[in-house]
Specification:
By secondary structure, this protein is mainly alpha-helical. It has 2 domains: 86 residues, no CATH class; 44 residues, no CATH class. Helix content is 55%, strand content 0%. The chain has 7 helices and no strands. Helix 2 runs antiparallel to helix 5. It is globular and about 45 Å long.
């Protein structure tokens, strides 16, 4: 069975404007189908948990919904209908700023840059979203194209 590297960036939002939600849907859906690459959690404790917490969604409720195999549009509709969901402009903005502003530890940054063959000399944007993109693209290349 295929092990798929998720390539939707955490810096992408769907129509609701919530960064990372499309990636969370993709990873959780792939994990539910048994197709997520083994280097990735279906729902992890980083951006995934940040997104669920910002929206006020319980992880078990999200997992149960993902088990129904929804499309992304169906996922956003479910989020909008979730009891007590926090979709105010201010909440979404606060969440998006947190996603965009997250910085990995020095060790994580160094590890990702070394793995993809870039120097850790300040010449690369070192925000976590961008580093995670590099990591995803490298894992995709190593798994599918190398």
């Amino acid at each position: 069975m295929a092990q798929i590297v998720p390539l939707i960036s955490s810096g992408i939002a769907g129509p609701l404007g919530v960064l990372h939600l499309p990636r969370l849907w993709q990873k959780a859906s792939l994990a539910n189908a048994g197709k997520l690459h083994s280097d990735y959690p279906g729902i992890g404790c980083g951006y995934d948990q940040m997104t669920l917490d910002a929206l006020g969604i319980k992880i078990d409720d999200f997992k149960a919904f993902i088990a129904t195999k929804p499309t992304y549009v169906q996922t956003e509709a479910w989020v909008k209908a979730y009891p007590g969901v926090n979709l105010t402009q201010a909440a979404i903005h606060k969440h998006n700023v947190a996603i965009q502003g997250y910085i990995h530890t020095d060790d994580t940054r160094k590890s990702i840059l070394a793995a993809v063959g870039l120097p850790d000399d300040g010449s690369c944007n070192t925000g976590a979203v961008d580093l995670n993109n590099l990591d995803d693209w490298h894992t995709f290349w190593a798994t599918e194209l190398k």
